[in-house]
Amino acid sequence: MSSIKVVCPHCAKVNKIPKKDSYKKANCGSCKQSMLEYKPIEVDKEGLLHVLVIVIFQLYVDFWGSLGVGLC
Question: Whole-angstrom distance between the N-terminal and C-terminal Cα of the chain?
């Protein structure tokens, strides 16, 4: 069975899990928290590079700034 690498949104550790069509449960091997949460996480430049280098599946990134500039 093939596997994928997933970065835990809580502790940023890399987890290798079996590739499936869907997951009912996927807990981090390090911090034991769920990796299936769909809430945004805040990362700095180094954190983003860590995720981009390790994760090989689709990644959604929303860049947000506090400059008060609206959408054009």
Answer: 46
Q: Is 18 contained in some domain?
A: yes
Q: Count CA atoms within 13 Å of residue 4 on its CB side.
A: 13
Torsion of CA 11, 65, 71, 39, to 10 degrees: 20
Query: DSSP secondary-structure letter at 27?
Result: B
Number of domains in the chain: 1
Whether residue 42 is contained in a domain is answered as: yes
Helix or strand run (H / E) with residue 5: strand 3-7
Report the residue count for the chain.
72
pLDDT in tens, 2-59: 888 888 888 888 888 888 888 888 899 999 999 887 777 777 888 777 777 766 555 5
pTM to 2 decimal places: 0.60
